[in-house]
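Please, is this right?
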Amino acid sequence: MSEDPGIQAVIDDFELLGDWDTRYQYLVELGTRLPPLPEQFRDQAHQVKGCMSTVHTAAVPDPDRPGRIRYYGDCDTAIIKGVVALLVDLLSGHTPAEVAKMDIDRLFEGLQLHEHLSPNRHFGIYALVEQMKGQAAALGGQTG
């Protein structure tokens, strides 16, 4: 997996926040700032399977940056919506190949999410990441 400076920057930002309660509140705040999900993406094709929450993600070609992706997402649960916002921000602006190489596991380890979220939520977050990577691959004409 590639070293992405964006991943390290997010980890560094979270380390400055200190305890989990502060990090949790920050994630919730990120979710409140997530741009609205266009209605055409609120369908079964864009819903993340395996999440306890209702989560939708969509990847589209970035009209301002040819060859790069713009993500959209939404969730009905505040904390997971924050994770969606974090991923939308982190993955947007990259090429499909760059998204495929991102070490999202390193991000989640650095944020220590596995220590603070239930196993079901943890599984759902990985389903979310897999869907987002799959959407990038589809845009890039790749498989998987």
In short: Residues 5-139 form a domain with the Sufe protein. Chain: A fold (CATH 3.90.1010.10). The chain has one domain: 5-139.
